[in-house]
Amino acid sequence: MKRLLPLLLFFLKISVAAASDVGISQVLYDPLNESGGEAVELRNTGSSAIDISGWLLATETSAADATIPAGTILQPGSRYLIADAGWAAGKDNAAWRNANHEEAITLANADAGVALSNGSSIVDAVGWGNAANIG
Is residue 73 a contact partner of residue 51, using CB atoms and an 8 Å limit? Predict the structure, then answer.
């Protein structure tokens, strides 16, 4: 057991470091088209691919958290766009890229935020407006 513990701690350290390489890079919370126009972009700033399957994007105003589908691997330097259902037709600019994942999300236009969770802890969070009013 004494030999196994350092090995387990080593892998735990790598896992925590990898998760911290994924963060929220952009939030579109007040689009011109409020129906299907909101989005959150994640980015992997690390040097290793990270499995983000089952990770959750929580907002204060959505009925439920958005869940990243099984089998989703975020490559180093890559971005992953989670957008409101209807993004393909509802985005403000047709030239913007398509979402990697569309699911019903609602982002308030003031005093709100989003949090990215890996299922056991918050990996990143972003807020806008008056911090005292964000729940």
Answer: yes
